[in-house]
Design goal:
The chain is α/β, with parallel strands linked by helices and 392 residues long. It folds into three domains: 271 residues, 4-Layer Sandwich (Purple Acid Phosphatase, chain A, domain 2), CATH 3.60.21.10; 57 residues, no CATH class; 43 residues. The chain has twelve helices and 21 strands. The protein has a six-stranded mixed sheet with strand order 6-5-4-1-17-18. The chain has a six-stranded mixed sheet with strand order 7-8-9-14-16-15, with no helix packed on it. It is globular and about 85 Å long.
């Protein structure tokens, strides 16, 4: 069976004041083409269909068109679930009626997760959708006060699934959360994270041990925006369809293509999509970045973060940059980035350093030069005088 694993669509996303709806529709057209060419038996959406619990009208209309096109026109079943950005109740609306059309949506978590079975030439494959739910919701649902973390919650849910699962058939889990391998309370697999991901909880309580999914032939995950595996190809994040922050500049976006053979073995492929506008970071002096020779050699319509290396004050640099790059999203000064980094370093050991040492660091951060011996002597006298006054 060929499966298209996707996730984190975030329809209606607003990034630095720019609505991404047109960009999302552009990329979805490539999904249609991939479905027509590859002919998958099912498309999975592992959570975060929308970017917020109350999506704008344009986002609702777009998602309606997308799902209608895939299910009705391309005749491909879709299995989708609510992520942490979605409203579980809104996603769950009319879900029972939609099953008849081949659209299987799970919004609210239920005690008994009803499997969706799709057949290929080798027999049935059972899909278990686990919509996102806070541990408190799972604790109340199962009336189990021992559930305190996301890992506790997932172990409970998967345990119930395992009780009725047919191990002689092929089984796929679809879930949304932060899944990694944890051994002896330490994270054994480091995953790539992005700034556009909304934290699920504070501290380590968000982490789910991948061992929860050991009984499944494949686990399709959503939440992390970079496509990646968790330990092995049997547990994977598809990543988001688009870049939603500049921390994702180097990530490839697209769909994960999963092929499951008659024995339940998995083979992974990836189909990259080309965005309408890419995310780029450019660095340099204002004058050089506005040089037409440089501008004409790149796509000036891209979403851009600019890091200016100029020293001193500049007159309205954002307006000047947008006259050439209309979609500048962020503007930063390199000297301020360095100053911030240095100030954080100083803050970590501020109590252990002398006033004179702190002054020397401050002077160097501001002037990018070391203070002269004469200057140090002057400051030493000022500090000594101030301390005497304080003692009096």
């Amino acid at each position: 069976m060929k499966i298209f694993h996707t996730g984190d669509w975030h329809i209606g996303k607003l990034v630095n004041g720019f609505y991404m709806t047109e960009d999302q529709e552009f990329i979805i057209n490539q999904l249609y083409e991939a479905i027509e060419e590859e002919k998958p038996q099912v498309v999975l959406i592992a959570g975060d269909l929308y970017d917020r619990s109350v999506p704008p009208v344009q986002a609702i209309e777009l998602l309606n068109r997308i799902l209608g096109k895939i299910v009705r026109d391309l005749k491909t079943p879709v299995i989708a679930l609510a992520g942490n950005h979605d409203s579980n109740e809104r996603i769950d609306f009319a879900s029972e009626l939609l099953k008849e059309s081949g659209l299987y949506i799970s919004g609210n978590l239920k005690k008994h997760i009803e499997k969706v079975t799709i057949h290929d030439e080798h027999g049935p494959i059972n899909f278990y959708s686990i919509p996102y739910a806070d541990p408190a919701v799972v604790r109340d649902l199962f009336e189990d006060n021992e559930i305190k973390s996301h890992d506790d919650a997932m172990r409970k849910i998967v345990g119930v699934i395992n009780d009725s699962m047919n191990r002689d058939e092929r089984n796929v889990a679809i879930a949304h959360g932060y899944v990694t391998y944890i051994k002896n309370d330490e994270v054994a697999v480091t995953l790539e994270e992005s700034e556009s991901e909304k934290p699920l909880s504070i501290g380590g309580t968000a982490l789910i041990n991948a061992e929860c999914f050991s009984t499944f032939n494949y686990t399709a995950l959503g939440h992390l925006h970079g496509p990646q595996k968790v330990g092995s190809d049997r547990i994977r994040y598809a990543g988001s369809l688009l870049k939603y922050s500049f921390s994702e500049v180097k990530q490839k976006k697209g769909i994960t293509i999963v092929s499951i053979d008659d024995k339940g073995e998995v083979e992974i492929g990836f189909r990259e999509f080309k965005p309408r506008r890419d995310f780029r970071i450019i660095t340099g002096e204002l004058k050089s970045l506005m040089n037409l020779d440089i501008v004409n050699s790149a796509n000036k319509e891209d979403y851009i973060k600019v890091i200016l290396t100029d020293k001193g004050e500049l007159l309205d640099p954002m307006a000047k940059l947008r006259s050439v790059y209309p979609n500048v999203m962020e503007l930063m000064r390199e000297e301020r980035i360095k100053a911030t980094a240095n100030s954080k370093t100083v803050a970590t050991n501020i109590r252990e350093r002398s006033k004179l040492s702190l002054f020397q660091s401050f002077y160097q951060d501001i002037t990018e030069e070391e203070c002269t011996l004469e200057g140090i002597e002057v400051m030493k006298k000022i500090i000594e005088k101030a301390e005497k006054v304080g003692e009096e």
